[in-house]
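Supplementary Methods S3. Complex input for the pyridoxal-5'-phosphate-bound model.
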Amino acid sequence: MKDISAIRADFPILGRTVYDKDLVYFDNGATTQKPKCVIDAATEVFTLYNSNIHRGVHFLSDMASEEYENARERVRSFINAGSREEVVFTAGATASINAVAFSFGERFVGRGDEILISHLEHHANIVPWQMLCSRKQAVLKVIPVDDNGEIIFEEYLKLLGKKTRLVSVAQVSNALGVILPVDRIISAAHSMNIPVLVDGAQGVQHGVSDVRKMDCDFYVFSGHKIYGPAGIGVLYGKAELLSELPPYQGGGDMVKNVPFEKTSYNDLPFKFEAGTVNFPGAIGLARALEYLLSLGMDNIKQRERDLLEYATQQMLSVKGLKIYGNSPEKISVISFLLKDIHMYDTGMILDKLGIAVRTGTHCAQPVMDRFGIEGTVRASMCFYNTREEIDRLCAGIEKVISMFS
Ligand code: PLP
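Predicted complex, serialized as structure tokens:
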């Protein structure tokens, strides 16, 4: 893998200071920083070929359309989808889940049916299902988790039943960093012909995510969490399933023929892409994926595993620090609290030391309730972070403790 100083040089923001201190950015779970190639992609679109896609016959429109469809192909191969028809661009993971909740819900969910999620979910994978359940008088069921933040698999098996219409689970918990056993979750659901949506918002950027190997029915993620721009995301769905679903938004580009009597819809994936989509975002996302491939997804995984091991070791040696989410299967996230010190005090003092961490429920209130806490401090690391930065975090935490003792 490329040398770490060369990698860091690819991300201009990592060179800045905050409060006259070198920035330590440990809020990658919320959003990742952008390599120069992604920043340049936006400039290229707007200076070279900005034009609406799929609409014009002129040179610029053709070029923009081609780049947009190339981006779709890049996403397809990155997640190993079977065809480009299965890759729908949306505004992000939240938009993708809402699209499935509406569209799948419209087609397949009725009164008394059940949707199964886990206790670890981000609000984006809770609220759309609650809304669907209230629309359709369906029932939301929740897979419980144990004290390590792992789902209790036997309970999951008990919850799967004749009324279950869909299982929707995170690949990785954003609040704790715990990896869910999605392969086992999917094969148990499939043995009862129940489709599964995997929320890859915190998984896709940390290693190879092969949707065909996983055999998930839907897979969603956001561009901004995988080093691409905000406002773009992906909904992968198996073609045979997507073709059965009604569109969830109407408008331009998702149609074939629009007489007043009855509109006929466009083919996949356009049926689900109404209106002018965020094509600069899609092109930027493709650049981000190319960048990651140039580093190597396995190299990224290895580097992040090393950072997680080092950070866990160092942080466990801090007296009074408790880590939430102690599963051996984790990504490079440490969610913690300091004894008798409020998470916001910890976060604010670390900020003044130039260290960006996230504090709060991380949009996953139920999992905080499960542990009987208001929230945590979350340090989410990625391949461009270093052991020296972890040392600075630990020194910062010691400083917080000394200020409150
Ligand atoms: N799912 C998970 C697991 C997340 O961590 C997030 C964001 O933090 C989302 C969904 C929603 O992502 P976005 O806000 O980019 O739509």
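The first strand starts at residue 17 and ends at 18. Residues 92-94, 122, 124-125, 170, 174, 199, 201-202, 222, 363 surround pyridoxal-5'-phosphate (CB under 6 Å).
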